[in-house]
Specification:
Catalyzes the sequential NAD-dependent oxidations of L-histidinol to L-histidinaldehyde and then to L-histidine. Pathway: Amino-acid biosynthesis; L-histidine biosynthesis; L-histidine from 5-phospho-alpha-D-ribose 1-diphosphate: step 9/9. It is an enzyme of class 1 (oxidoreductase). The chain is globular, with a radius of gyration of 26 Å. A 6-stranded parallel beta sheet has the order 1-11-10-9-12-13, with helices on both faces. It has 15 helices and 14 strands. It starts with a strand and ends with a helix. The longest helix has 30 residues. Helix content is about 45%, strand content about 15%. It is of the alpha/beta class and about 425 residues long.
């Protein structure tokens, strides 16, 4: 993990799209097979890519029951507490339909309607991500989505882990498709004999999942094209190096493409944090993954001033931003681009991942410049409502026709004038 002096020649961007042509071709072939062969195509692709022959595509009642038998009470209590916190946060995001009226009888408004079907992708195989389930399912439920189809790749035994099944059950999810990769995305987007077509697909995944979501966008909506996880720690001379190092490693251990970056005004803190990273790294079970992440996508940048450091943070527009500085609230107003902002020493990124309540599905790879975290809004659509009275129509008719003719749309103008003449 190199320490780099910030100047105008330092590039803070990285290209995650290059070299994906082969994967794109594979994704298109997989989508085509699912569209052509439906359930059978899903089973064949699951055998090809996951090494599993599935007798049934969906989790059975016996599998649900066994999951609870294999799950410990302490873990269940932690899940239930997290669910309550996350649900409470998202309930505050709910928007109501609204209507306004004018004295001339005009009524204008907006109708908020939940989506009918949502598809939630949860990475699986050897891994278990109950937090991903909570962060995707809860805002959908809070929005009022009645039909949620979850999909996750099975392990070599054709099963999903107890943590995944119990979390889904605690949330009331009843349909889990045992499939992953581009084939699962295709099934959700186009439907099969047993998989209903959804309106929106959310959830993270590998490069094949990301490319598949991009390929089906337009057929369905998607949340975002999520890249590897990122963290930026903003530090000053008050920052504890051991805290900063631990938080950098919490992202580096995700995968080899994850990015862990510190921006600091203190060379001394930079040096001590680097030492702590090396010390703590040696004790991690996933140290090889974290090491690769730090070697290829990690850095500690030293700035001449806090203003320069904040500018660098806004250029990075990170998924996760920790303000591990003496007065984090004083800097909050200067942060323009970040998916989630963590203030102070005890607001470590894992607090947001698992317990606090805000959604951890966040924009990556600089897209926090224009994107937001997953929210209840992502699972609703809005319809405009307008009702003109005769009085309001006659008042505005000539102006409407005039604007229509500015655009060369005579039929538009006549559709107004025929009513005006009929009412006079």
């Amino acid at each position: 993990m190199n320490i780099i002096e910030l100047d105008e020649n330092v590039s803070l961007t990285r290209d995650l799209e290059s070299g994906t042509e082969t994967q794109r071709e594979s994704v298109q072939a997989i989508i085509g097979k699912v569209r052509e062969k439906g359930d059978q195509g899903l089973k064949e692709l699951t055998e090809t890519y996951d090494g599993v022959q599935l007798d049934q595509l969906f989790v059975s009642e016996a599998e649900w029951q066994k999951a609870y038998e294999d799950f410990d009470e302490r873990s269940l209590e932690a899940l239930q507490k997290a669910i309550a916190n996350i649900r409470s946060f998202h309930e505050k995001q709910v928007r109501q339909s609204w209507m306004t009226t004018s004295e001339d009888g005009t009524m204008l408004g907006q109708k908020v309607t939940p989506l009918d079907y949502a598809g939630v992708y949860v990475p699986g195989g050897k891994a278990a991500y109950p937090s991903t389930i909570m962060m995707n399912v809860i805002p959908a439920q809070t929005a009022g989505v009645k039909n949620i189809i979850m999909t996750s790749p099975p392990n070599k035994d054709g099963e999903l882990t107890p943590a995944v099944l119990v979390t889904a059950a605690e949330l009331g999810v009843t349909h889990i498709l045992k499939a992953g990769g581009a084939q699962a995305v295709a099934a959700l987007a186009y439907g099969t004999e047993s998989v209903p077509r959804v309106d929106k697909i959310t959830g993270p995944g590998n490069i094949f999942v990301a490319l598949a979501k991009r390929a089906v966008f337009g057929q369905v909506d998607i949340d975002m094209i999520a890249g590897p996880s990122e963290i930026v720690v903003l530090a000053d001379d008050s920052t504890r190096p051991d805290y900063a190092a631990a938080d950098l490693l919490s992202q580096a251990e995700h995968d080899e493409m994850s990015s862990a970056v510190m921006v600091t005004t203190s060379r001394d803190i930079a040096e001590k944090t680097k030492e702590q990273v090396e010390k703590q790294l040696a004790e991690l079970p996933r140290k090889d993954i974290a090491q690769a992440s730090l070697d290829n996508h990690g850095a500690i940048y030293v700035a001449d001033s806090m203003d320069e450091a904040v500018d660098a943070v806004n250029q990075l527009a990170p998924e996760h931003l920790e303000l591990l500085v003496q007065e984090p609230h004083a800097l909050l107003g200067k942060i323009r681009h970040a998916g989630a902002i963590f203030l102070g020493s005890f607001s470590s990124e894992p607090v947001g991942d698992y317990m606090a309540g805000p959604n951890h599905v966040l924009p990556t790879n600089g897209t926090a410049r224009f994107s937001s975290p997953l929210s209840v809004d992502d699972f609703t659509k809005k319809s405009s409502i307008l009702s003109y009275s005769e009085q309001a129509f006659l008042t505005d008719a000539d102006d409407i026709a005039a604007i229509a003719r500015m655009e060369g749309l005579e039929a538009h103008a006549k559709a107004v004038e025929i009513r005006r003449k009929g009412e006079k």
